[in-house]
Amino acid sequence: MARVLVIGVGQIGSELGPALVEQGHEVVLADRLPPEETAGWDVLQKGLGADGVRKRWHRLDVSDTPALTGLLRELRPDVTYHLAALLSATGEKNPDLCWRINVDTTREVISTLSSFNAAVAPRLVVPSSIAAFGPLPGEEIPAVTPDLYPMMPTSMYGITKVAGELLGAYAAAKQNVDFRGLRFPGLLNTAPPGGGSSDFANMMYFAAAAGKHEVEVFCRPDTRIPFMYMPDAVKAIIEVAMAPAARLSRRTYNVAAMSPSAADIAAALRARVGRFDVRYVPDFRQAILDSWPRALEDSPARADWDWKPTWDLESMTDDLLAQLGWNKPA
Ligand code: AKB
User: Fold this and answer.
1) What is the domain count for the chain?
2) Burial (0-12, 13-18, 19+ Cβ within 10 Å), 183
3) Which of 15, 38, 154, 328 is the most exposed place for a label (fewest CB within 10 A)?
């Protein structure tokens, strides 16, 4: 059993927290909002019960440095999952805040964990993203992008993710912090995501499950990026956190599951719900999506800590529609 702190309980944290409790860890969930006001409240309640959530909850504004470092000092967690972040679309609208939340708070967490001078280096897990990649000048990004490819992100969010990866590698080498990270695709579950460019897919599932026959999304139908169903994302982040250090050949790993286009997702939904018309109206997020890999090459994660996804587009679509309460016609 480990003492675990989850900072930022949003789309990922609301499923990760209950999964960690289920594994027998002592878990503290820290977020700026009261639990009932978070996007993942329904998911959290389902996993832990309302009282189970409340007793583990700690109100924390990550940008309040004394509060952040004070909580870390009080808890001295064995494993910290730092998930608080602005995503790509919100980050473009407020790049300074994106840097402050995504990078400055990661630096604070690293410095505080490092200051413990612990005999066993505390683990820190910070997710990176497909957004850490971008095309080299005058080139297209490789359709299937490997772990080791020059990182030239085009969004501030992507820049913060590269900075986080590099700070983590430095912390692991020089600051006695056992940092682990993974580059997540767009993630789907029942919790509404907050301000990502991959949200067009979530919007389609939410609309279809609500019985709507029409939806407008902000990308072209041929937009293809990597996606992952949340149960696989939770499995991956716990596996990378718990992997024996001796097996890690790097500090941040690509993880892949599926790479449908927006039109493929619409077709998978149409095959289940019947008429489902999608109006494709690209906005500023299209350029961000176009700069991301079409697919990730993840053989190092598979070799080093036995990563293997469970869900593909078809199985995810069946399960997610059911989880979202869609009533299949008899
Ligand atoms: C976003 O769209 O910004 C995120 C991501 C792919 O990291 N969902």
Assistant:
1) 1
2) buried
3) 328
What is the structure's pLDDT at 242?
Answer: 96
Integer-rounded Cα Rg, in Å, for the chain is: 19
pLDDT at 215: 98
For residue 98, give the 3-state DSSP assignment. helix
Mean pLDDT of 6-16: 97
**Could you tell me if residue 268 is inside a domain?**
no
Mean pLDDT of the chain: 97
CA 255 to chain centroid, in Å, comes to 11
Residue 329 pLDDT = 73
Q: Write out the residue range of the structural domain in which residue 110 sits.
A: 3-187+230-258+298-310
The pLDDT score that the predictor gives to residue 192 is 87
Q: Exposure pattern of 282-302 as b/e (b: 16+ CB <10 Å)?
A: beebbebbbbbbbbbbbebbb
d(CA 314, CA 52): 33
Specify if 318 maps to a domain: no
Query: What whole-number distance in Å separates Cα of residue 24 and Cα of residue 120?
Result: 20
Residue 238 confidence (pLDDT) above 80: yes
List, chain by chain if needed, residues with CB within 6 Å of any ligand 1 atom: 87-88, 129-131, 157, 184, 186, 196-198
- 63 located within any domain: yes
Is 165 within 8 Å of 125 (Cβ atoms)?
no
Contacts of residue 90, Cβ cutoff 8 Å, sequence gap at least 6: 98, 194, 195
- What six digits make up the tokens of 264? 């493929």
Q: Is 35 part of a structural domain of the chain?
A: yes
Mutational pocket test of ligand 1: of 197, 229, 283, the residue with most ligand atoms within 8 Å of the beta carbon: 197
Largest CA distance in the chain: 61
Residues taking part in catalysis: 157
> Helices then strands (H, E): number in the chain?
13, 14
CA of 74 to the centre of ligand 1 (A): 32
Distances (CA, A) of 135 to 29, 30, 293, 306: 37, 36, 9, 29
By the 8 A CB rule, do 60 and 72 touch? Answer: no
